[in-house]
Recover the amino acids of this structure.
């Protein structure tokens, strides 16, 4: 059989079968198509404006390395006029982060981009190694994820940058959609699918230009462009990423390669069906310059590169347990509001009745009100943000450990 | 009652019964009995009996629902009250593989066991004459309906039969597990938008449907494994009515040689069989929550020629860029005819149906 030719240029021999749609392409056309699609994402969602200073959240892994390379290429090719810098977080994990940071340093030289590294140690006075020593290997990803979300923002603020791009890909977003359906979290579902996150009031916005790029294609791109990246998974999450949603998505992808993007599309569409959401389907509708912005607080698509959105079996078991307990408690519930709320003498009976929560009452999707953390000033829906709460717990334990 | 232990048969059947009766009660309130003219020709009109249509796939859930509806009727009759409803049971068979006589014979045991209900078997090909599907444009985009739209066609037929038999509601046997599966499989097929139309109870009105139809899922609070248990506990057991009962009850039991041969539905069934066993509350939670999604319908939007969901032209346009379609060559070796069909399809089909029908 004659070797098949590239479906686009029809002259070169096809080397690559695209995971996204099984089109057979040559190396050059694949690279070009991959870049063109990200250009489409950037322009259709109006992610950047000319002259914008943008920090690329760089971990040294494949996603952020490809993101940096593609943005550099597109910035030059299409004249975005972006001022690109690399921003890395040093969690303080010996044997993992120190090596991957070396990769980022090399990338910084190769791409000619300035690099800033922000450490957990300087921000929180804790390295992840120390956190793990204190709380053990179980559950430490929560700390790392919460700390990282803030660290990127704080790093960007230090540099006077208002836009951080991250390397989240289509597989990550699809996983988050499935995860949020499984844990029945509609408000997170509606937030996590937006390409731009970060409240209008928050000083730093986030976006994911690789949102529609398949993980497999990112690997292919890195391979064919001979990019240098660091592929070791975090040493503290060895079992965590065999998550339920991830396994399911991989199976679905085998059945239908387009499933990943179909899930992302469903997620975007469903976000509009969540009670209280805007019913617009277009990324730019009603927004003249920028794509719609969703609040990023605990949006759930964060965490670390390796456990992102993936749930260890434990979380599912915990959710199941909690739901069961709720069911049991619901049976024991007695409505006491009526007896308590008897008006005092002389007081007018104008008081509002307290809403009685029942299972059938329509929920407003649990929308949170965004404020600021009283301690660190970071945006938070609670009085004290998650990071400060976690730190408080850690610091309480510290003296005991030192003894 | 915890949902894990295998309980005493009497209590368990009672538990299942109570759960379905609760839903049937809601249904009874949502429907009003029809007013019929006085048979004597004069005098005041009379109040008729409610009439429902049940879609029977011959699977576990719909068979259980049939039994539960029967028990409900028998209970009322035993109290000396009139039957609460009349039921037409419809089995849609795929006439590519099954002859009408085979389909008829499949329903024989049901007819014997439930003599008060009316049974019909209906060929899938009857969907070709339905006005609710825009066949001319669909067929110009596609030569043959692919197998993965069969469930859509079945649904169309059931909806239209509900209207043509003057039934007041269409009853579907989906269990909690089935609704959770449907939620995730519709999502995986790019049909997330259609979920509120697919799994919610209530009046379903679609642009292509002559009038709204009340759709109800009375078993939405019962897990599949509980229904499987129930089939063994009725007297006589329901298992005799369900073809391939073992295979249906144990989706994971038979080995998969090639995962590519599975359908998205099969992947979901296997996945949820596992989740249901270990984390039943998670399944219930998915089903409950997805039912909270609301329908948005923009009057100006036309409906998809196949599933009838509102179309989203802008969204689809933007997505073609993300999918890598458009300026990039679509399919390798695609003929002009193929390309024309693809373009035609985009005009008439929603995103999900394009993915199902055109690949």
């Amino acid at each position: 059989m004659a070797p098949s030719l590239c479906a686009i240029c029809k002259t070169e021999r096809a080397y690559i079968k695209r995971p996204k749609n099984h089109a057979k392409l040559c190396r050059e056309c694949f690279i070009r198509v991959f870049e063109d699609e990200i250009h489409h994402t950037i322009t259709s969602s109006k992610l950047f404006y000319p002259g914008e200073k943008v920090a690329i959240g760089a971990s040294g892994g494949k996603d952020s390395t490809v993101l940096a390379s593609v943005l550099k290429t597109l910035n030059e090719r299409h004249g975005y006029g972006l001022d690109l810098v690399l921003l890395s977080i040093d969690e303080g994990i010996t044997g993992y982060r120190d090596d991957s940071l070396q990769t980022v340093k090399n990338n910084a030289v190769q791409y000619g981009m300035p690099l800033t590294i922000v450490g957990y140690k300087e921000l929180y006075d804790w390295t992840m190694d120390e956190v793990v020593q204190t709380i053990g290997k179980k559950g430490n990803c929560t700390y790392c994820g919460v700390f990282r979300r803030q660290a990127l923002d704080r790093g960007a603020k230090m540099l006077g940058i208002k836009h951080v791009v991250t390397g989240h890909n289509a597989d990550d977003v699809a996983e988050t959609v499935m995860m949020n359906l499984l844990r029945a979290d509609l408000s997170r579902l509606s937030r996590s699918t937006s390409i731009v996150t970060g409240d209008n009031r928050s000083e730093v916005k986030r976006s994911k230009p690789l949102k529609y790029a398949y993980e497999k294609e990112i690997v292919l791109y890195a391979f064919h462009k001979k990019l240098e990246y660091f592929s070791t998974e975090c040493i503290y999450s060895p079992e965590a990423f065999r998550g339920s949603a991830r396994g399911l998505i991989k199976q679905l992808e085998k059945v239908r390669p387009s499933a990943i993007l179909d899930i992302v599309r469903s997620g975007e569409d469903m976000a509009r069906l969540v009670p209280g959401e805007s019913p617009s389907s277009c990324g730019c509708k009603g927004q003249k310059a920028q794509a719609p912005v969703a609040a990023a607080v605990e949006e759930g698509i964060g965490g670390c590169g390796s456990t992102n959105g993936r749930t260890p079996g434990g979380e599912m078991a915990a959710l199941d347990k909690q739901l069961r307990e709720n069911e049991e408690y619901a049976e024991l519930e007695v409505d006491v509001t009526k007896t308590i709320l008897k008006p005092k003498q002389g007081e007018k009976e104008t008081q509002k009745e307290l809403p009685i929560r029942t299972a059938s009452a329509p929920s407003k999707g649990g929308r949170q009100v965004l404020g600021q953390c009283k301690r660190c000033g970071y945006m938070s829906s609670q009085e004290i943000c998650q990071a400060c709460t976690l730190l408080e717990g850690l610091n309480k334990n510290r003296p005991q450990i030192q003894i | 009652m915890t949902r894990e232990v295998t309980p005493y048969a009497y209590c368990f059947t009672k538990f299942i019964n109570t759960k379905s009766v609760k839903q049937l009660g809601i249904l009874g309130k949502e429907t009003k009995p029809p007013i019929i003219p006085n048979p004597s020709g004069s005098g005041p009109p009379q109040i008729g009996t409610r009439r429902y249509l049940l879609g029977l796939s011959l699977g576990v859930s719909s068979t259980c629902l049939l039994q539960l509806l029967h028990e409900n009727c028998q209970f009322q009759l035993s109290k000396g009250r009139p039957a609460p409803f009349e039921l037409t049971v419809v089995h849609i068979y795929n006439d590519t593989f099954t002859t009408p006589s085979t389909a008829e014979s499949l329903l024989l045991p049901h007819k014997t066991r439930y003599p008060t209900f009316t049974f019909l078997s209906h060929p899938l090909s009857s969907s070709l004459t339905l006005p609710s599907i825009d066949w001319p444009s669909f067929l110009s985009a596609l030569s043959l309906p692919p197998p993965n739209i069969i469930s859509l066609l079945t649904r169309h037929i059931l909806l239209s039969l509900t209207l043509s038999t003057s039934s007041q509601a269409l009853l579907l046997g989906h269990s909690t597990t089935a609704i959770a599966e449907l939620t995730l499989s519709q999502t995986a097929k790019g049909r997330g938008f259609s979920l509120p139309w697919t799994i919610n109870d209530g009046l379903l009105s679609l642009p292509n449907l002559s009038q709204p139809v009340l759709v109800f899922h009375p078993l939405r609070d019962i897990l599949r494994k509980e229904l499987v248990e129930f089939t063994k506990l009725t007297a006589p057991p329901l298992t005799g009515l369900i073809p391939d009962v073992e295979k249906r009850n144990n989706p994971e039991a038979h080995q998969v040689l090639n995962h590519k041969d599975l359908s998205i539905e099969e992947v979901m069934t296997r996945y949820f069989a596992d989740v249901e066993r270990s984390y039943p509350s998670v399944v219930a939670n998915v089903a409950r929550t997805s039912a909270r999604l609301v329908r948005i319908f923009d009057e100006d939007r036309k409906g998809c020629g196949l599933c009838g969901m509102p179309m989203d032209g802008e969204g689809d346009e933007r997505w073609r860029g993300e999918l890598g379609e458009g300026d990039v060559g679509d399919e390798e070796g695609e003929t002009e005819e193929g390309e024309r069909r693809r373009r035609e399809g985009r005009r008439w089909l929603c995103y999900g149906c394009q993915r199902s029908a055109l690949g």
About this structure: The longest helix of chain A spans residues 313-332. The first strand of chain A starts at residue 16 and ends at 17. The mean pLDDT of chain A is 77.
